[in-house]
Amino acid sequence: MVTPEGEMPMQLVGKEEEEEEEEEEEEEDNSHRDPDDIAHARGIGLGPDDGNRGSGGRVGGNDKTSDNSLKDKDKDKDKTENVDRITSLPDDVLIHILGFIGDAKSVFHCGATCHVFYRLLPRAPVLSFKDSTVVEKLDVDDAVTSAVLKCQGLSHLLVETGSASHPWKLCSRTAVRLWMTHTHASLCELSICARLKPGTMHDILICTLMFCRKLQRLEVSPPRKSSIGNVQELDWLVLRTCEPQTCLRELRLTMVGFGQEDEGGGGGGSDPAATGGLNDLLGLFPNLVLLQLVCFTGLTRTSVVSTELRALCVAVPISPHSERWAQNILVDAPQLEEVLFYGIRDFEFTKRTNPGRLVANGCHDLKFSFWSDRLLLLDLHQDDDEGRKWHAIELIALLMIHRHTLVDLHLHLDVWECDGPTEDIITEAFYQQSFPLLEVLHIKHFGLGTLLQGLQPGTPAFNAPNLRDVWLCVELQYCTTNFVETFLTFCPKIEKLVVELKGGSWDYEQGLPGIKQLQQDHPIVDLRFLS
C-alpha cells in the first residue's frame, strides 16, 4: 500500500501500540521480581556481562562467566543456610557434637572455623590427645594444660602419647595435678597412657581421693617396661590418711609398686604401714566393679574382699629375682563374674566366690576345689617350664565338675602319664559324658592332645551338640584321623576345625595319607604341619 511520505500504515501503527502496551504490562509484572530472575528470563547479562551483550539484548560469548557467577551465589547461599542450621540448634546438641568429635585437635579446629562452636569451647565435654595431636617437638604438659584450662565442664580427658622416649613427652606431677584440680567438679573419666615422671601415679590417686570426687573411671598406664626403675611406687602412709572415694567404679593401673618385699608381706625392715595390697586399694575405692593391675611389684601375699567387684585382673608381676612371684591371692567377692590371673603362684576362692569366666595363664598351682561351679569360660595355660604337670585325676575333676556349664574351654597344659583304670575314667569323662553348652574347645598342648587321641573308645563318640570352634594340637599318628573325624561326625554345628600336627611318632607316615584325605573330604579342616 502506498502512503504519503512520513506516514505509517494503520496496521503497523496499531501493532506498535499493542507491543508498547505489552512491554508496559511486562514491566508492571516484573516490578516485584528479582532483577537476576528477570535478566535470566530475558537472556541478558548483569554486571560485568553487560558489555558482552549482542543485539536484541541476548547474551554474547561469555556463558561460562554467567554460570560461574550463579554457582558462586548458590555456594554462598548454601553456606548461609548451613550457618543458619547450626545457629538454630540448641546448645546441648552442639555440645554433644563436640563430645562426639572428642579429638582435641578437631574440637579446637571447629572452634576456629565456626563462631558458634567457639562460643561453646569452654563447655566441651571430651578432650582426647593422641600421638598425632601432640607433635614430636611439643611439650605434652604445655599442650594438654593449655587446652584443659580453656574448658570449664570437661568430663572425659584422655592422654595417650605411646612409648616414645622423647623427654618432652613425659607427664609431670605438676601438670597432672593442675589438670585434675581444674576439672575436679566435672571430671568423670581420666585415662593417661603416657610416660610419667616418678611419683605421678601417686599424685593422681591423691587428687582422685581429695578433689575429683565424681571420677568414675581411672586408668594410669605408662608403657610396660621390665625394669624396676620404671615402677610408680605408692606412698601408703599418705594414701591411708584420705577419705574413701565412693564414686570410682573402674580402676586400671600399670607399672605400680606396692612396697612389699618378702613373703610375709613386710617391707624387709621398713615400716609395714608403708606397704599395701589389693585390699588396701579396695578400701580407698570401696565401690569398684573392675580392678586391673598389670606389671606390678611388691604383691607377695594379698587378699581381695569386696561386695561390689565384678571383674578382677592381676597380671605380670615384676621382681628383681626371677623366682619371686606373687605367692598367694585370696578372693572373697560374691559378685565376681570374671577373673584373669597371670603369673600368680597360687590363688584361692572362698565358697561364695563363683566367677563365670576364669583365665589362669602361667600360674603354678591350680586347685580345683576352690574354683567356681558355674564356669562359662575356662582358660588354663601352663608352659612346660612354668609349672608342674597335672595329675590325671585333676583333669577328670575339671571335666566332670564343669561339663554342664562350660561354653568356652581352652587348655594348654600337660598331664602325667596315667595307668589303666585312670585312662578308662578319662575316656568316660571326655568322650562319653555330655557337654551340652560347649561351643569352643581348644586343646593347645601336644601332650594333652596326644593323650586324649590315644584314649578314644572302641565306639567313637563326643557329645557336644553346640560345638562350633575346635583347635587340636596332636602328634600325627595312625589314630589321628579317627580322632578328628569324631568331632566332624558328632558335632553338627561345627564351623571351624584347626589341627596342628607335629611329627615324632613312629607311625607318622601311616597317619599322613588318612589325615590329608580327611581334609579333602571336609574343607573346614585346617591342617597345620609343624616342623
UniProtKB/TrEMBL annotation:
SUPFAM superfamilies: F-box domain. Residues 44-60 have a biased composition (Gly residues). Residues 30-40, 64-83 have a biased composition (Basic and acidic residues). Transmembrane segments: none annotated. It comes from the Eukaryota. Residues 16-29 have a biased composition (Acidic residues). Residues 86-120 form the F-box domain. Pfam families: F-box-like. Residues 1-83 are annotated as: Disordered. Signal peptide: none annotated. InterPro entries: F-box-like_dom_sf, F-box_dom. This is F-box domain-containing protein. It comes from Chara braunii (Braun's stonewort).
